[in-house]
Write a structure and sequence with these properties.
The complex is a heterotrimer, with one copy of chain A (165 residues) and two copies of chain B (430 residues). Chain A has seven helices and no strands. The radius of gyration of chain A is 17 Å and the shape is globular. Chain B is mostly helical. A two-stranded antiparallel sheet of chain B has the order 1-2. A two-stranded antiparallel ribbon of chain B has the order 3-4. In chain B, strand 7 and strand 8 form a beta hairpin. In chain B, helix 7 packs across helix 8, helix 19 packs antiparallel against helix 20 and helix 19 packs parallel to helix 21. Chain B is globular, with a radius of gyration of 23 Å. Chain B starts with 25 loop residues before the first helix and ends in an 8-residue tail after the last helix. The structure holds calcium ion (2 copies). The site of one calcium ion has 6 residues of chain B, from loops. The site of one calcium ion (CA) has 6 residues of chain B, from loops.
């Protein structure tokens, strides 16, 4: 699938941070990366590369019910800031170096975060479907994104975002 | 399992009754799962779409056939079908298929039963067989399968009591999907082996998403009765494409019947939904039968799978719009645009085939070189199977439009080549 | 909607030089828009894909043809093309098309120029014509158009100096897209009229998204030279589908040439990308040529349209992944799966056509009933045009896979019917 497995890189981050700290830190202010610590979607849109999602979000069904962080950061306090730090660091890093593939695609790690976010708000309505009938190895528990990939930011084209078997 | 589940949320279903592997009656399951049961029962509805659904045609019940309503006759809609199937039971009675609720009675009362002696094998896909097979096999599914296959239909019929039921697709304890049909268990194993995957066990190896298609593949497939034991077999050991299936039949020298007008040893293709779906862009994108035919529907506070299995064109908003954000009329129009293309070419292939059959009939026993007639009969066998493969596939091509058109193109060429083979070679200019 | 979003990526630019409607030289425009100009210049690259792109074939320059590199010969790749075009200039030289940078020289030096006397009309799609047409017409586009059409090619050639340039697609003041080609201005007007839209003026009535396809439709279309004035005409007054175009030619009794082997009055189809795209799911979904062939690309802080117009398979991530989330290899594989299907059936249709041509050739002037030969020639005319319509369409079917397969199915049937028409009727059994 698309997107680099950011999870696999995690251990390296500390070391890498040392190397890239200057760059990272610079952008962190320059691009108001600190906005990662707020909840205001406009903050995300501080980076023009996030404009497409921002504009899409404004047109989406969730515009009035969920902000970026509701779907892109884990609910629990620690996880939330860990993810924000990681994303904040990486996004700043890539933004500065410009070394990221486009179109930008959600990474497996953040994808999982988002899948969990859906269930946070909708656990009640999906109880019947997420029931653990994973006798099939739990190999593919239901993916919300498979059908609802565009709830966060409206998109054209099918929600074809499940791994190709 | 669904009953004691720690994770996510509270189980939405109340265990009112105890369900076991031998609980056949859907009404009993319905006590625990009323929402799904309600949908299941609505498969009696008959609504027609441009090419699908079904029309409720009233009839006066007779002693031989007590049905007061049937689906429209396809033979009346297109008499050319009778020519294609001349000499075979299908030329006597062939109707548009309708909802699951009718599967058992429609099989019992089709006039095809009167013109041909049918085996117990037929029941494999028209009744709830999980309990009966195991009963007949004293606990052994396959022994029961073999035993019922060998019986005359009327005798085997006594062993069954319901159309496809909950227990045929669900494990009574966990509600997990499972495949209960010997035909598919063996068929998919052979197909996987052809891809180099040995010892495939569908209930062990399939992902949940695959199961959302495999439970349907238990029945919506091309099949034949193998050998004198009339053993139900899915012809997949070379693969699922029409060429691979035709080659399989040629190699095993199988024929369904000898064509009454042309004398060709021909084949009947039947509902290869699963095979065709496999060639399409949706299968390639991981979209399963249940995604479109049993879409999630909100009932009260819950989202459940709509067990009213039917044409997705009757519930486009649920079946398609979560993935395709086009207006409902536009989505319908897209399906029909593909279907019109396929239907148009299907008619062209039908004309070509009927012309070939007419030609062979005209020249047989007419001193026409036997070898030329034989070549023409060979072309008919393949042309007819290819055409029937698309004609019998019930989505009018939608499951794989490009593949359907490709197959029909082949069929047209084969029929015309057959006609050419019957004619003396042209005298070249000197 | 996604387009609006993408198009909101407006670009600030610095007016280094003053551009007017008469600024022809792209290098000058390049001073204001260096990024687009860089891409534009890269259309000299030659890279081959499975079915598209182009291969750089070295050759020794001659006085008659100074090109040191050309694209591969399609005639060598498939000699059957020579049979289809027997007696026509295309049988002499036909190559895979390559980037825009070569359009003018490839037209000047193709050997088709040597075997046939070509008119100035040809330049309409192979050079920057906005300035020359207006100059020749003393300010009037259509007068200049008529005047250059009437000249012999060599003479008209002196009026032009660049391949398609910025000014052919852009308004120098606003940079807005605009259609500058008389052929399309009249063609689209006729096509819209056929749909009941009177007095359509593309530069006034088209949406921005439509313009992203119309600027390409100026040239990537089927066309013919009407009457003795050799007026460039797009045969769209009945519609854009192959049947409608074939009927248009039949009605106006037009033929491109008389087939050298069969004597049939035949037609040559040419690059109907615009017409085929119109029949596909992408056009139906509002996806324009530029979305795939000139995808938005980020250069630093800017998002610009990649002016390196080429096969999208050479830039899948930008061209496709903005809408399709599949991995690049999978997207490539999907395109090729469609193309393989179409190419396979194209070959089958080609065999059928070559067989028909051979048959007609064999029996002509052979005392074979003239009326039968005439029927066969009629079938050839239509079968050949249908096949060529897909063969000449440069996406190998991708722009509309279902339509391409449908057309090829028709072609096969027509060729075989032609062969049957030549043979004496079968003697029926008594
Ligand atoms: Ca039906
Ligand atoms: Ca090319």
């Amino acid at each position: 699938m698309g997107g680099r497995a950011r999870g696999a890189l995690a251990p390296v981050v500390a070391g890498l941070a040392g190397v890239a700290a200057g760059v990272g830190a610079f952008t962190f202010f320059y691009a108001r990366g600190a906005s990662y610590l707020t909840n205001d979607p406009k903050a995300c849109a501080n980076c023009h590369v996030m404009n497409e999602q921002y504009d899409g979000w404004v047109k989406s069904s969730h515009r009035s019910v969920a902000v970026c962080n509701d779907c892109h950061t884990p609910p629990d306090f620690v996880g939330k800031y860990a993810t924000k730090a990681s994303n904040g660091f990486w996004h700043s890093f890539y933004f500065t170096t410009g070394a990221f593939p486009e179109p930008i695609r959600i990474t497996p790690r953040n994808r999982a975060v988002t899948e969990r976010a859906c269930r946070n708000c909708h656990s009640a309505v999906v109880e019947a479907m997420v029931a653990d009938r994973a006798g099939h190895g739990g190999r593919d528990a239901v993916s919300c994104l498979r059908c609802h990939g565009s709830v966060g930011h409206l998109e054209l084209g099918a929600g074809g975002s499940l791994p190709v078997g | 399992n669904i009953f004691e589940r720690k994770q996510e949320a509270r189980n939405p279903f109340y265990r009112v009754v105890e369900l076991t592997d031998d609980t056949e009656d859907p009404a009993v399951w319905g006590k625990n799962f009323p929402l799904q049961y309600d949908g299941y029962r609505r498969t009696v509805d008959q609504v027609r779409t441009r090419f699908g659904g079904s029309e409720a045609v009233p009839r006066t019940p007779t002693a031989a056939d007590p049905r007061s309503v049937v689906a429209q006759s396809r033979l009346e809609e297109d008499p050319r079908l009778g020519t294609m199937w001349a000499g075979y039971a299908f030329a006597k009675d062939f109707r548009e298929e309708r909802g699951h609720a009718y599967m058992l009675e429609d099989q019992v009362y089709t006039e095809r039963q009167q013109v041909a002696k049918q085996p117990g094998t037929c029941l494999h896909c028209h009744a709830s067989m999980w309990a009966p097979y195991r009963k007949a096999g004293e606990g052994d599914l396959f022994r029961g399968f073999d035993r019922l296959n060998a019986m005359p239909y009327a005798e085997a019929r006594k062993w069954v009591s319901h159309p496809v039921a909950c227990v045929d697709c669900h494990d009574a304890q966990t509600m997990q999907l499972r495949v209960t049909r010997p035909g598919f268990l063996e068929g998919i194993k052979a197909a996987k082996a052809a891809q180099g995957v040995a010892g495939y066990d569908v209930n062990r190896d399939a992902t949940r998403q695959e199961m959302r298609a495999f439970v349907c593949g238990q029945c919506h497939v091309e099949y034949y009765f193998k050998g004198p034991e009339k053993r139900l077999t899915y012809p997949w050991s070379r693969g699922l494409k029409v060429e691979q299936i035709a080659d399989y039949y040629d190699e095993s020298g199988f024929k369904d019947w000898v064509h009454a007008e042309s004398g060709a040893p021909v084949l009947k293709a039947q509902h290869p939904e699963f095979e065709m779906w496999n060639q399409g862009i949706h299968a390639r994108s991981g979209v399963a039968c249940a995604d479109c035919h049993m879409p999630y529907t909100r009932v009260g506070a819950l989202k459940i799978s709509d067990h009213h299995v039917r044409s997705p064109l009757l519930s486009v908003s649920h079946a398609c719009q979560s993935c395709h954000r086009w207006p409902e009329p536009e989505l319908k129009a897209r399906v029909e645009a593909s279907q019109e293309r396929v239907f148009g070419m299907r008619n062209q292939a039908m004309d070509a085939l009927v012309a070939l059959i007419g030609d062979i009939k005209a020249v047989r026993g007419n001193g026409a070189a036997a070898d030329r007639v034989e070549v023409a009969q060979g072309r008919q066998r393949r042309a007819q199977f290819f055409l029937d493969f698309v004609e019998a596939e019930n989505s009018t091509g939608f499951h794989a439009p490009q593949e359907a058109l490709r197959i029909l193109g082949q069929s047209i060429d084969l029929s015309r080549q057959g006609q050419l083979a019957l004619r003396p070679p042209l005298v070249a200019k000197k």
